[in-house]
């Protein structure tokens, strides 16, 4: 048997989550965000899973879009950060990509390029995130200018929230108010909602949603939420116990003996390490499922292995199944023990981990 470290990707769960996003605003469209290799799940596979029902796909850069077009994906593909250099515009036009425009310099570049087909532009406003986007006071003139360019087909109005995962945080309402004040009489479709806003803010559900993390079944919120709790996990990261030993009280386990046994402890060694993408900074006590029972990480995660406490686990033996996150253990919960978020857990899974697709 080969090394057991496996990421099992449940395609039907991914579709369920997309349909949940769509069901929240039936007249709205949803751009399935599959940037960063579909948050580590495999962009081509995930695009195939939704090729009949997604309204569009969203990626971060042209390389990611080209990969999808070469795989035969015909749906619109939105470049969330637009183009990085003007020489991408020809390809954007040829491949019929939708393109965010977030700066006046990009509008200049567009105006100075001859294109075969006019392109769909998503004009991004910086309503308070202060990362990308045209400033509110320049937004209306930018919109007017884009509408006059022969290089431009439809324009969609777009912004992005800094704090939508923090429900009730006034910054989201402020950003929405800023955006709405500037755009209220502009005749164009609107897209403002990422997963957290799609789930948590009814008035953020406009003509296009942009769900990302929710498609992969992880809640963006730190507390229970009636809709987010209906999401189904897509990735299960699993492996096996490859060794077991009894360690006396007072002995340390693993590098630097970070964990010291306070009683005689049955220690299980799991074929999963930071080179697989399991975070090295996972704390002692991070939940791990062994044989369907919840137990804890003990000791520092090494490159290829980690150690768990089997003292209370019944029936554990070499070969027992270990789940690091997935169907029975939410990635969002594991993330809190690693001072991170599910996004980095998913995107961090490395190519050494065998990917297996089910319910295709
Ligand atoms: C990544 C991204 C999204 C999706 O965000 P989630 O929090 O994963 O839902 C939406 N919009 C933009 C502009 C993005 O870059």
Automatic annotation (TrEMBL):
Stored PROSITE patterns: ALANINE_RACEMASE
Presence of keyword Isomerase: yes
Q: Which CDD domains match?
A: PLPDE_III_AR_proteobact
Q: What class of enzyme is it?
A: isomerase
Q: Which residues carry this modification: N6-(pyridoxal phosphate)lysine?
A: 35
Instruction: Please give the family membership noted in the entry.
Output: Belongs to the alanine racemase family.
Q: Can you name this protein?
A: Alanine racemase
Q: What is the lineage of its organism?
A: Bacteria, Pseudomonadati, Pseudomonadota, Gammaproteobacteria, Oceanospirillales
* Gene symbol of the encoding locus: alr
């Amino acid at each position: 048997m080969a090394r057991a470290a496996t990421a099992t990707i449940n395609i039907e769960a991914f579709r369920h989550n997309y349909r949940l996003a769509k069901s929240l605003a039936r007249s709205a469209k949803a751009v399935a965000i599959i940037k960063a290799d579909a948050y580590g799940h495999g962009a081509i596979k995930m695009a195939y899973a939704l090729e009949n029902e997604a309204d569009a796909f969203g990626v971060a850069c042209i390389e990611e879009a080209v990969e999808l077009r070469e795989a035969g994906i015909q749906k619109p593909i939105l470049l969330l950060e637009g183009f990085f250099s003007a020489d991408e515009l020809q390809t954007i036009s040829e491949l019929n990509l939708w393109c965010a425009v977030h700066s006046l310099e990009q509008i200049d570049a567009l105006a100075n390029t001859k294109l075969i087909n006019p392109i769909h532009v998503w004009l991004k406003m910086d309503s308070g995130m202060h990362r990308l986007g045209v400033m509110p006071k320049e937004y209306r003139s930018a919109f007017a200018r884009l509408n006059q360019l022969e290089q431009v087909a439809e324009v969609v109005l777009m912004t992005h929230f800094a704090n939508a995962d923090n429900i009730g945080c006034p910054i989201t309402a402020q950003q929405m108010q800023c955006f709405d004040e500037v755009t209220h009489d502009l005749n164009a479709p609107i897209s403002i909602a990422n997963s957290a806003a799609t789930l948590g803010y009814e008035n953020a559900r406009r003509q296009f949603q942009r769900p990302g993390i929710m498609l992969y079944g992880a809640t963006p919120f730190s507390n229970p939420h009636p809709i987010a709790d209906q999401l189904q996990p897509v990735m299960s990261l699993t492996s096996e116990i490859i060794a077991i030993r009894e360690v006396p009280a007072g002995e340390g386990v693993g590098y630097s003996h970070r964990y010291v046994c306070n009683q005689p402890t049955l220690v299980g060694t799991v074929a999963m390490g930071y080179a697989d993408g399991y975070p090295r900074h996972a704390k002692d006590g991070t939940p791990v499922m062994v044989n369907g029972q919840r137990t804890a990480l003990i000791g520092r995660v090494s490159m290829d292995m980690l150690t768990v406490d089997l003292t209370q686990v019944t029936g554990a033996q070499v070969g027992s199944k270990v789940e690091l996150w997935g169907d029975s253990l939410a990635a969002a919960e594991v993330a809190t023990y690693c001072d991170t978020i599910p996004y980095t857990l998913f995107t961090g899974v490395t190519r050494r981990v065998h990917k297996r697709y089910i319910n295709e």
